[in-house]
Design a protein that fits this description.
The chain is mainly alpha-helical. It is built from 47 helices and seven strands. Among the domains are: about 10-190, 3-Layer(aba) Sandwich (Rossmann fold); about 195-255, no CATH class; about 825-889, Winged helix-like DNA-binding domain superfamily/Winged helix DNA-binding domain (Arc Repressor Mutant, subunit A, Orthogonal Bundle), CATH 1.10.10. The strands form two sheets. It has a five-stranded parallel β-sheet, sandwiched between helices. β3, α5 (about 145-155) and β4 form a beta-alpha-beta unit. α35 runs parallel beside α37 and α36 runs antiparallel to α37. It starts with about 25 loop residues before the first helix and ends with a helix.
Length: about 900
């Protein structure tokens, strides 16, 4: 009987791939590039899609005429006899003509290994066709003899033979030579994890085609892109329509059963106990777990976990420890197992708190001390931590920690009360901040601490939109160092921000670039990033979108990299970035920038809340409907009423008026305007706040007058807005005023005035980089711009044509005249020409960045400039325009 006759035939065929399986385009491209390598290793934990990826690649190879064989392994294949039988069967099914007298394993004959390898290699070498042997679940093989056989096979196989191994465990093979020769392709969990776009596409296919970006981002973040975790969450949500993703992660899924049966069932009790105990740690290293778990062989146990690929990720913290973390869903599973055990979890937390405290890692130390309910220890650690507090995220945790400390303990620690007042102010809890500050009046404080309190009052004034008082207070603090980057950063940030609000942009930039603000440019803690972002706010308030995009993009990228996408710093900076992207007509980019971040901003600084809310409403109006935008604005209006923020209420009402007018319902808009007029009559905490509300109200009133064909009244209101815009140096607002004045004088038949206002708006809009300011005014403005005719200034004319092109896409019924002459290719810089050449090769922004050794943000910036110069809005249009230019040249 042949050795393969007793094998189940399904071992030689891959499992059926669901028709909903995601095609991993980037990974398929990697495998295609590696199709001539002698060895491909696909290694990851369970549920990352190794088998699916191999199966999809197998189909592609078969389409290209390659010979492909498949071998699925299980625990019973871990003997030389069974493995060799499976290997021979797989090769035979590929059409390899094997010799009839192949030597089979013989425990008494050490030469059989060389003999069978020689026979196999000779047989493979007879056929020149490309041959691919795919072996799935190679982690079932622990036999050194089989490992030696596979090693000899790929070390000596002919060039047309390629071995692909999928395994849950790190490879035991010797790979140094093939790595050095560039003959090895390795794909691991980090690459098999879904990128957000893949998660989004997966959820649209498996859960709901209309799933919103916020929910998709939340589910992607919860699973860290783990495909099986995402699938099980989708199944659980599909079974309960309307349910939102949230904690606990395992609730409503079959993930616990999956992990128990398919991942940890064959692990030793010692290793399992170690894993359960480490689940209390958000990150760990060998020294920490040795103390927490009271083991002497922590390093060996971690190495075993790594070898088994058990959802353990190495974390590069750039210190003297090698840190690790569990996948969040696996950590929750382990935590549930720990809770069901007899382990004293409180003692684990006490030991963890002691270790983190000794190392000066205070956030973790406080967390574990709180979980152990040792409040004396908590207070001591917080006292140690105060000099190091510089992270907004840590401040939120700090406030929660303080809330859990008994009041009787807190009263004896005025420094804790001071920092609590600061955190309350920063997070928008102004009354609480004032109360805590008053409680310190009777306490003996140093002169430096008194300066801290003055600065605290400046923060409270800033959050109360009393800008003039905030500036006066921060200036009274003086220029002498405050001896802590936390306070020095706020002093600079408040100074720059308040000067910008008042329209004193030159002074704001001078303060930002002053010698005592240099540390803002060299430090990257979270608060420093927030305060550094004030320079982007300066440009945004001024209306200079080009400068605002350049500055905000780099700061946002740093915040996301260091503190995470949903950190307070990243979410705050994202509001400016999203507003700029919206103004630049990059609608999808703006929506994704804001996605799953709005709830983080609910109690942030007022200008960021207002900015995020308006941008999101405008995105909803464009991508969903006017009604969706109005519903959201009504909700936010109620939110700002609860907070007592009249400025926010005014902005929400004005935007409701604008959106309502686009639907033609001027009567409802008139009702909304009446409410807005009432808000404008209310007393405000500062002159600036009053001016802002008056400007918003007058602009909204002018829109309503235009809708009702009352041009003279509109011009009166617009003159009031113009005066405020000039007083505060708001460039974008001045452009908007010019646009609306052009519409008003056009109704009055004053053609010369129309041309004057439009040319002024175009000149300023081009300088500032404005698009949506024009586009959002709709068809009436488009007609005026088209009737304006060709402008003498080349840059202004190209800008006018770009605006007309954008506005025509929104209303294809009235196409505009195309540019009379093509844009000469010499307008493109050398870098832009390089990027455009790679775009023509269908490269993604990420691949272009890698090819040119530049950042993805630089690629995006150059593409935007290319689109503007070529008067196009997409990659495809840019390619076509360039080809036309080249042909005409």
């Amino acid at each position: 009987m042949k050795p393969t006759s007793m094998l189940v035939t399904t071992k030689f065929a891959p499992p059926r791939v669901s028709r909903h399986a995601m095609l991993r385009e980037a990974l398929m491209a990697r495998l295609h590039d590696a199709r001539n390598h002698c060895l491909v290793l696909i290694t990851s934990s369970a549920g990352f899609g190794k088998t699916t990826l191999m199966t999809q690649w197998r189909l592609e190879l078969l389409k290209r005429g390659a010979l492909v064989s498949w071998l699925s392994l299980n625990a019973e294949d871990d003997t030389p006899e069974t493995f060799c039988a499976g290997l021979i069967g797989a090769l035979q099914r590929m059409g390899v003509a094997l010799e009839d007298d192949l030597p089979l394993p013989n425990h008494g004959d050490a030469s059989w290994l060389q003999a069978i390898c020689t026979a196999l290699i000779n047989s493979l070498d007879r056929d020149g066709a490309e041959q691919y042997l795919m072996i799935d679940d190679f982690h079932h093989i622990s036999s050194p003899t089989i490992h030696a056989l596979v090693q000899v096979l790929f070390d000596n196989a002919p060039a047309n033979f390629h071995l692909i191994l999928a395994s849950r465990q790190a490879s035991p093979l010797l790979l140094g030579r093939v790595r050095a020769m560039g003959e090895l392709c390795e794909i691991d969990s980090s690459e098999l994890s879904f990128a957000f776009r893949e998660s989004f596409d997966f959820l649209k296919a498996h859960l709901d085609t209309s799933i919103d970006l916020d929910t998709a981002h939340s589910m992607h973040d919860m699973t860290s892109g783990w495909p099986i975790g995402l699938q099980l969450l989708a199944i659980a949500m599909k079974a309960k329509p309307g349910k939102q993703p949230g904690q606990p992660l395992l609730s409503g899924t079959n993930l616990g059963a999956y992990l128990s049966e398919d991942v940890i069932s064959d692990l030793s009790p010692v290793l399992l106990a170690f894993m359960y105990k480490t689940s209390i740690l958000r990150r760990f290293n060998s020294a920490l777990v040795a103390e927490v778990c009271e083991v002497d062989d922590a390093g060996e146990l971690i190495a075993t976990l790594e070898a088994h690929n058990l959802f353990l990720f190495a974390v590069d913290m750039q210190d003297h420890f090698q840190w690790y973390r569990w996948h969040p869903m696996f950590a929750e599973f382990l935590g549930q197992r720990l809770a069901d055990s007899q382990v004293d979890v409180r003692q684990l937390h006490l030991r963890a708190a002691a270790w983190f405290n000794r190392e000066g890692l205070y956030p973790e130390a406080i967390r574990h001390a709180l979980l152990s309910e040792d409040f004396d220890n908590v207070v001591q650690i917080i006292q140690n931590a105060l000099p190091t507090v510089s992270s907004l995220s840590h401040m939120g945790m700090f406030m929660r920690w303080i809330d859990r400390v008994p009041t009787t303990l807190l009263e004896h620690h005025p420094q804790l009360i001071l920092i609590s007042a600061w955190i309350a102010a920063i997070t928008g809890h102004l009354e609480r901040a004032r109360a805590l500050s008053r409680s310190l009046d009777a306490v003996q404080l140093s002169p430096l601490q008194r300066r801290y309190i003055t600065l605290l009052h400046a923060v409270i004034a800033l959050f109360s939109e009393d800008i003039e008082t905030a500036l006066a207070l921060v200036q009274s603090v003086g220029d002498a160092p405050l001896r802590h980057p936390f306070f020095d950063g706020f002093r600079i940030g408040i100074t720059v921000g308040t000067l910008a609000f008042l329209g004193r942009f030159g002074e704001a930039r001078s303060e930002f670039n002053a010698p005592n603000a240099r540390f803002l440019h060299t430090h990257d803690n979270e608060l420093t990033l927030i305060n550094r972002a004030t320079i982007a706010s300066v440009a945004w308030l001024e209306g200079n979108m080009l400068e605002a995009e350049r500055t905000s993009a780099s700061i946002l990228a740093a915040a996301e990299t260091m503190y995470g996408r949903r950190s307070l710093s990243a979410s705050t900076i994202a509001t400016i970035s999203a507003a700029v992207l919206y103004e630049s007509d990059r609608i999808d980019d703006a929506r994704e920038t804001l996605a799953n971040r709005l709830n983080v901003l609910h109690f942030s600084a007022p200008e960021y809340m207002y900015c995020a809310t308006l941008t999101y409403a405008r995105l909803q109006c464009l991508q969903e409907s006017a009604q969706a935008a109005l519903d959201y604005l009504v909700t936010q209006e109620a939110h700002f009423r609860n907070l007592g923020r009249d400025h926010g209420i005014a902005l929400m009402l004005a935007e409701q008026v604008r959106v309502t007018l686009t639907t033609g319902d001027w009567r409802h808009a008139q009702s909304l305007q009446a409410n807005l007029n009432e808000v404008a009559c209310l007393p405000q905490p500062s002159t600036l706040c009053q001016l802002n509300i008056q400007g918003v109200t007058a602009l909204s009133r002018a829109r309503l007058a235009l809708a009702r064909q009352r041009a003279e009244q509109a011009l009166e209101d617009l003159e009031q807005v113009q005066a405020i815009a000039n007083q505060l140096n708001r460039g974008a607002l001045l452009v908007k005023v010019d646009i609306l004045m052009a519409l008003a004088v056009a109704e009055l038949g004053r053609e010369d005035a129309v041309r004057e206002h439009l040319q002024g708006a175009l000149a300023c809009g081009y300088r500032l980089g404005l698009l949506r300011t024009f586009i959002d005014e709709g068809d009436a403005l488009r007609v005026l711009l088209q009737d304006l005719g060709e402008l003498a200034a080349k840059d202004a004319e190209l800008y006018r044509q770009q605006l007309l092109s954008c506005m025509t896409r929104g209303n294809p019924a009235r196409p505009c005249t195309p540019p009379s002459t093509p844009v000469p290719s010499v307008l493109l810089t050398k870098r832009e020409q390089e990027i455009l050449a790679l775009v023509e090769q269908s490269m993604s922004n990420k691949r272009i960045a890698l090819a040119l050794n530049i950042s993805v943000q630089t690629v995006k910036w150059n593409l935007k400039n290319i689109f503007i110069k070529l008067n196009v809005s997409s990659r495809y249009e840019a390619i076509i325009a360039t080809r036309k230019i080249n042909r005409s040249g």
